[in-house]
Write a structure and sequence with these properties.
By secondary structure, the protein is α+β, with helices and mostly antiparallel strands. The protein contains six helices and 18 strands.
């Protein structure tokens, strides 16, 4: 038997945020078993803790395949381990390499890898993917690929209205990601549902079996790097509250901090609340 916990990550309260199953004692689980369990849970991701030593070895599966990195599984798995170890810091050994999570301000925060900036995409093509008009994409900033471990296409929209109206064209999406290194499309706008928040975002990744994600740590980390790189707020540093998931009735809040360090590379931290929902055993 394998024990598991279900937590809501980037939650505003219980039963919000992004659901995650954390499966323990998975050292002898096969890749096929992990994928089958991830499909059974049906969440955006499920994590499998293969060892729990100094640097716990963790693997991440979507319902479609294994991924090297994803934000809310990293944060949620660390929060589960925090609860059992009475610690304030843990470094997880992921496929993408070590990722450290720390407790700060009563929230778990993860350090993401230094961003890599990829190509710029045509607004007409991306607008077709999102089912909106190209004029609703902010032409002051590029549509660009960014990766901190899982590449995402960051799409700046003019306002909240087109964010609400996004309706992914699956045929156009499939054609787009076939030619792109990034399979995640992350659209955002500087208008929000909640006055205390700074940005609203939606993330789409059908390629990974995730039609729409309610809260995305990796893509919002990429967003933080994008905001710094392209001077979105006319500042070398950003500290923003990103709301996500409102359109699919899973309201979420992702905290993002990013800024340039002395060697001009960009440091990124992503944090959020984690709520325990359930625990059990796989039989």
């Amino acid at each position: 038997m394998r024990e598991f916990e279900i937590v809501d990550v980037f939650a505003t309260r219980r039963y919000t945020g992004n659901q995650l199953a954390v499966v323990r004692d998975a050292a002898d689980a096969t890749d096929e078993e992990m994928l089958a369990v991830a499909k059974e849970f049906g969440f955006s991701e499920t994590t499998f803790v293969e060892s729990e030593g100094e640097k716990p070895r963790v693997r991440i599966f979507t319902p479609a395949e294994e991924v090297d990195f994803a934000g809310h599984p990293t944060l949620g798995t660390a929060a589960v381990l925090f609860g059992e170890r009475d610690m304030e810091e843990v470094t997880l050994d992921l496929n993408v390499g070590p990722v450290t999570v720390r407790e700060q301000e009563d929230l778990p925060w993860m350090e993401q890898n230094a961003p890599e900036f990829g190509g710029v995409h045509d607004t007409e093509t991306v607008a077709e993917v999102l089912g909106i008009d190209a004029t609703e994409i902010d032409d002051n900033h590029p549509v660009r690929e960014v990766s901190t471990g899982l590449p995402a296409v960051i799409v700046p929209l003019e306002s909240l209205d087109p964010v609400r109206r996004v309706s992914l064209d699956r045929e156009a999406y499939d054609e787009f990601v076939a030619e792109s290194g990034a399979k995640v499309v992350h659209a955002f706008a500087p208008e929000t549902y909640e006055d205390e928040n700074d940005l609203n975002a939606r993330m789409f990744a059908p390629y990974y079996g995730v039609p729409e994600d309610p809260a995305t740590g990796s893509a919002n980390g990429c967003l933080g790097a994008y905001l710094v790189e392209h001077g979105y707020f006319d500042s070398p540093d950003v500290d923003v509250r990103v709301e996500q998931g409102y359109e699919i009735e899973r309201p979420s809040l992702v905290r993002v901090r990013a800024g340039r360090n002395e060697d001009e590379s960009i440091d990124i931290e992503v944090g959020g609340k984690v709520e325990k929902v359930a625990e059990g055993e796989l039989t």
